[in-house]
Design goal:
Number of strands: 2
Helix content: 55-70%
Oligomer: single chain
Structural class: mainly alpha
Shape: globular
Strand content: under 5%
Strand order of the largest sheet: 1-2
Order of helices and strands: HHHHHHHEEHHHHHHHHHHHH
Length: 487
């Protein structure tokens, strides 16, 4: 095939966000970027603050891009600033994690570039719009990596807990949400008239919750839930191929992205505050923070209710909209299971950090973080409630009642089911010894036994040495250049 030389004719172009959830996503990108910088100020590291500003700028650039080249430029700005932020933390293995991060995202960018080239060859245009069918597989692969969908999730689980506390908040706001927004604008993938991306997202939402339930590291638990919540978003934007619920599905997916960056940022700030106090991330070596850190405790409860989707908090509003947008019971059913697992995870999160007695030797004098860190947490907690009570201020033009009696009852099922399950397993969870490496198994042992032979191979694949990954990507680029040169 002959690919026209589009770069010589390239013109830099941006666009204003469309009214509705897209505009809200842009506004919260700006707001959350400012709040994260405020949260990071007590660390007094100017280089880190500059990199965080550039990272936020890359996210905003991608969100307002009108053509594929600017969109890719925004992607890669976030990639390289994220690597810099990881490298500056000084944490153990942070540099190796950063190198793997940059290799994975460069591979994603390469696939995106191929998709852009194929789209240009077919249409002669670079506008950000639903891609031509020939380009869809390349964009799909790039976005699945960018959004950390299983099994391409290891880069997120590996890097976010190794970032600084403010850095992990920043990463959770931009990288994967830009991937979701890109999916909403480019992808229209169906197979046998089924919305492939929506089914992938709903399935991953369940699988990632299972991974989260086994974590004892506070930020790894939250990282797994980022993957799960991205599944919710893709379950919405993947409905774009549907004639009936397509527009509503995209709006619901982006609305959930807005809500997610609010409550997940609050939860990561909570985790940063408590981990600083205890000096580690191990949930089972914490406890008793409820009295010494009342503001942090209150924010954690509100944000947990929001992520679980308890009415009238933010997560409930977007999850109910997702349910109404879906035309089949399969996707809402999978998301319901994921919500139950989410509820169980955050009951454990609250219980181990704030409610149980302090672990032996960890009875420390605890206190809330300084005002510069409390203020962002409280603002985010307020939005967890505002976005749930008044979703209309975000969903302009979407006339749907989400507070019908049946919808509210459906929204209460996950937290109630999670509470009942917790009553059955709480002694096993709370009695885990401090030296244990993993959580007790909370799914059927037969499933765990069948999966266990595969786990070492999966870990080895995900833990590939950065030099090996760089060489593989370099050889791929050479092969790609040869293919394009002979096309």
């Amino acid at each position: 095939m002959n690919i026209p030389p589009f770069l010589p004719f390239y013109e830099f172009s941006l666009r204003l966000p469309q009214p509705g959830a897209e505009t809200a996503l842009f506004a919260f990108f700006v707001l959350l970027g400012a709040l994260t910088l405020l949260y990071a100020l007590p660390d007094r590291r100017p280089g880190t603050l500059i990199a965080m500003l550039l990272h936020a700028g890359g996210g905003l650039l991608a969100l307002t891009a009108q053509d594929l080249i600017v969109l890719l430029l925004g992607w890669e700005t976030m990639t390289f600033t994220a690597f810099f932020l990881l490298a500056r933390t000084g944490r153990e293995n942070a540099l190796s994690a950063g190198l793997r991060y940059i290799v994975i995202h460069m591979a994603s960018a390469t696939l995106f570039f191929i998709g852009a080239a194929v789209h240009w060859q077919a249409t002669g245009a670079l506008a950000v719009a639903p891609a031509t069918p020939a380009a869809q597989p390349f964009f799909l692969a790039a976005i699945l990596i960018k959004t950390a969908m299983i099994p391409m999730h290891a880069w997120l689980i590996d890097t976010y807990p190794k970032a600084s506390y403010a850095g992990s908040v920043l990463f959770s706001i931009y990288t994967t949400k830009v991937g979701v927004f890109t999916a909403a604008r480019l992808l229209r993938v169906s197979l046998f008239d089924q919305p492939v991306l929506a089914l992938v997202g709903a399935t991953v939402a369940v699988l990632a919750v299972i991974g989260a339930l086994r974590q004892r590291n506070a930020r790894r638990l939250l990282a797994w839930h980022i993957v799960s919540q991205i599944g919710f978003m893709l379950a919405g934007v993947g409905l774009a191929v549907s004639m009936a619920g397509g527009r509503l599905g995209v709006e619901a997916g982006l609305f959930h992205a807005v809500n997610h960056i609010v409550y997940k940022s609050a939860l990561l700030m909570v985790a940063g505050a408590v981990c600083r106090q205890f000096g580690h991330d191990d949930l089972h070596r914490m406890g008793g923070a409820g009295r010494g850190m009342p503001v942090t405790f209150a924010v954690a409860v509100v944000a947990s209710l929001a992520i679980v989707g308890v009415p009238p908090f933010a997560g409930y509003a977007s999850k109910e909209l997702l349910k109404q947008a879906s035309q089949t019971p399969l996707i809402p059913g999978l998301l319901l299971v994921a919500s139950v697992g989410t509820g169980l995870s955050f009951i454990k999160f609250i219980a181990l950090i704030f409610l149980k007695k302090p672990a032996p030797g960890c009875d420390l004098p605890l206190k809330d973080p300084p005002a510069l860190q409390r203020i962002p947490m409280l603002i985010l907690a307020a939005f967890c409630l505002i976005n749930g009570l008044r979703p209309g201020w975000i969903l302009s033009g979407t006339d749907i009642d989400i507070y019908t009696p049946s919808a509210v009852i459906f929204g209460l099922i996950p937290p109630l089911a999670a509470g009942l399950i917790w009553l059955g397993i709480r002694r096993r969870v709370l009695s885990v010894p401090d030296s244990a490496e993993t959580e007790p198994v909370v799914w059927p042992e037969a499933v765990g036994n069948r999966l266990s032979p595969l786990l070492p191979r999966l870990r080895a694949w995900h833990a590939v040495h950065p030099h090996t990954a760089f060489m593989a990507l370099f050889l791929f680029w050479i092969a790609l250049a040869c293919w394009l040169g002979n096309a």
